[in-house]
From TrEMBL:
<dbReference type="InterPro" id="IPR000504">
    <property type="entry name" value="RRM_dom"/>
</dbReference>
<dbReference type="GO" id="GO:0003723">
    <property type="term" value="F:RNA binding"/>
</dbReference>
<dbReference type="InterPro" id="IPR012677">
    <property type="entry name" value="Nucleotide-bd_a/b_plait_sf"/>
</dbReference>
<keyword id="KW-0508">mRNA splicing</keyword>
<dbReference type="GO" id="GO:0005686">
    <property type="term" value="C:U2 snRNP"/>
</dbReference>
<keyword id="KW-0694">RNA-binding</keyword>
<dbReference type="InterPro" id="IPR035979">
    <property type="entry name" value="RBD_domain_sf"/>
</dbReference>
<dbReference type="GO" id="GO:0071013">
    <property type="term" value="C:catalytic step 2 spliceosome"/>
</dbReference>
<dbReference type="GO" id="GO:0071011">
    <property type="term" value="C:precatalytic spliceosome"/>
</dbReference>
<keyword id="KW-0507">mRNA processing</keyword>
<dbReference type="GO" id="GO:0000398">
    <property type="term" value="P:mRNA splicing, via spliceosome"/>
</dbReference>
<dbReference type="InterPro" id="IPR051847">
    <property type="entry name" value="RNA_proc/Spliceosome_comp"/>
</dbReference>
<dbReference type="InterPro" id="IPR034150">
    <property type="entry name" value="SF3B6_RRM"/>
</dbReference>
<feature type="domain" description="RRM">
    <location>
        <begin position="17"/>
        <end position="92"/>
    </location>
</feature>
<feature type="region of interest" description="Disordered">
    <location>
        <begin position="98"/>
        <end position="126"/>
    </location>
</feature>
<protein>
    <recommendedName>
        <fullName>RRM domain-containing protein</fullName>
    </recommendedName>
</protein>
<keyword id="KW-0539">Nucleus</keyword>
């Protein structure tokens, strides 16, 4: 009965069935990842980072959001080959490319020129 009640509980908005895993050993295999993460539920996909910038990271996609939550609860800080895993929920907003303020200001100026809008004059009218 307790498991059923926990299953029907509302999950926080940051919970996702896609997990982002950091601090993995560089030589970890897909099979080892399935062994570690598969204990917490059915896995749809695991993507290991292979480039210089993404080595030591992975995405783990669970079939069920409750299985993903269980994995985060149990595997954050889990020791694998003397490395402590960092297991996070995937956040689409954090994964997008970061743009500097200067780049945004330059883009805004180009748009103002393109549409013949004076940003200073528009700000004074308000």
């Amino acid at each position: 009965m307790m498991a059923l009640r926990a299953r029907n509980a509302r999950l926080p908005p940051e919970v996702d069935r896609i997990l982002y895993v950091r601090n993995l050993p560089f030589n970890i295999s897909s099979e080892e990842m399935y062994d570690i993460f598969g204990k917490y539920g059915a896995i749809r996909q695991i993507r290991l980072g292979s480039s210089k910038d993404t080595r030591g990271t992975a995405y783990v996609v669970y079939e069920d959001i409750y299985d993903a939550k269980n994995a985060v609860d149990h595997l954050s800080g889990f020791n694998v080959a003397n490395r402590y895993l960092i297991v996070l929920y995937y956040s689409r907003t954090k994964q997008t490319k970061k743009v500097s303020t200067k780049d945004k200001e330059d883009e805004l100026r180009r748009m103002q020129e393109k549409h013949n809008v004076d940003g200073e004059q528009h700000a004074r009218q308000k």
